Amino acid sequence: MKLLVSAMEASSNVHLKELKKYLDEDIELVGVFDKELGNPLYDLTSLAIMGFVDALKKLRFFFQLRDELVELARDCDKVLLMDSSGFNLPLAKKLRETYPNKEIIYYILPQAWAWKKGRVKKLEAYCSKLCSIIPFESEIYNDKNKITYVGHPLLDEIKEFKTQFLETNKIAFMPGSRKTEITNLMPIFKELVKKIPNKEYILIIPAKFEENYIKKIYGDISEFSISRNTHETLKEVEYAFICSGTATLEAALIGTPFTLSYIAKKFDFFIGKMFVKLNFVGLANIFFEKMGKKPLHSEFLQEDVNVENLLNDYKNLDKKLFFENSKFLREYLKNGSSQNVARIIQN
After folding, report:
1. pLDDT at 100 over 50
2. How far is it, in rounded angstroms, from Cα 155 to Cα 345?
3. Does position 44 have pLDDT exceeding 80, yes or no?
4. Residue 162 backbone zone (phi > 0: left; psi -120 to 50: alpha; other: beta)
5. Which has the least CB within 10 A, 42, 195, 222, 245?
6. Residue 165 confidence class, pLDDT cut points 50, 70, 90
C-alpha cells in the first residue's frame, strides 16, 4: 500500500513514529513527514513558520505544496492527514474534488470543540474517516459513523507512569518552546527558585534547541540542571511549573503535580478569549470538567503569573490527591491510539 501523509508539525511526527510501529512493513509513506520515517517530499525544517508575516511570504509555496501532494495522491491508495488544519483542510477539499472515491483519514483533528465549529461540516464532507483523540469530541459531529475515538497518543508515548507519590527534592521547570513563552516565564522561575530552597531545580529544554540559542533566550541558567527528556524528568521530580501546552497533560498522566502558568501578548489573549469558549486552559482540567470533577490543577494566566501565586500553589496543592486523580485521567482516556489508527488505515 502507498499512503500519502501530510504531517507538518514536530508533534505530529512523534505520533506518526509510534503509528508506524503498527503499520505493515509493505506500507510506503509518501508526502510530508520527518525524514527519519522515510523519504519525504520536503524536509520539515523548510516548512517552519514564525508568525503572520512569515506565513504570508510562504503562501505561494504552500499552494504549490498542496498541488504537489494532490498530484502525488494519484498513485496512492489512501491519504493520512495529521493536525495542521490550516493546511490540511484545504488539502482535503482539493483531494476530495480531484479523487471523489479516495479514502481520506484525518488523525489528530482540529479542536472544533473549542473554537471554529464550522470546521466540523468540512471535515465530514472531505474525509472518509475521522480519528478522534478526545473522548467527548464526537458529540459535535453529525455523522457518528465517520468519527471514532481511538485513544490518546500520549498513552503510547509515555513509557512509565508513577506508581506512588514520592518526595524526591527535585522540581522541574518548563517555560515552553516558543521564544515569547520562555522570555516571559524564565525571570519569574528564576525568582521562584530563591523562595524554594534546598531543592534540585531541573530546567527542561526542547531537544532541538542549540547551545547558542539557549544562551541567548534563557539567559543565566546556572541555578538549574538541564534535561532534554521530558517524560523521564517528569517521572523523577516531585513537582513541576509548566507553561500551558501538551506538557501539562503529560505531567498529569505521569502523575506529577504541577502549576500551569501562561503569559500571552495582550492582544492575542484578548482575541483568544473572544473565540475560545472554555472554562480552562489545561487539557487535564477540561477533561475533569467533562467528568464532573473539580479541576486537577491550578491555572495562572497573564497578570496572575507571579512569584507569590506560584509559590502559594506549590505549598498548598494537595499533592497526594493530585496523584490519585491522575489515575482517573488515565482511565478516562483508556488507551493509546496508534494501534487503533493503524487498524483503520489497513482495513
Report:
1. yes
2. 20
3. no
4. beta
5. 222
6. confident
Q: CB of 164 within 8 A of CB of 339?
A: no
Give me the pLDDT at residue 51, please: 47
Residues of the chain with pLDDT > 90, as a percent, come to 81
Rounded CA separation 172/94 (Å): 45
Cell of 108: 489528530
- pTM given for the model: 0.89
* Distance separating alpha carbons of residues 244 and 339, to the nearest angstrom: 28
pLDDT in tens, 274-322: 666 678 999 999 999 999 999 999 999 999 999 999 999 999 999 999 9
* In contact, 154 and 230? CB cutoff 8 Å: no
Cell representation of residue 76: 496512492
Q: In the prediction, which pLDDT does 50 show?
A: 46
- Reading phi first (left if > 0) and then psi (alpha if -120 to 50, else beta), residue 20 is in alpha
**DSSP-derived 3-state class of residue 173:** strand
Alpha helices in the chain (DSSP H): 10-20, 51-57, 59-72, 85-98, 119-126, 154-157, 179-195, 211-218, 230-236, 246-254, 266-275, 283-290, 307-316, 319-333, 338-346
Predicted pLDDT of residue 271:
64
Range in 36-50, 66-80, 139-153, 208-222 with the lowest mean pLDDT: 36-50
Which CA distances in Å does 63 have to 3, 59, 76, 107, 336? 21, 6, 20, 22, 34
Burial of 153 (0-12, 13-18, 19+ CB in 10 A): buried
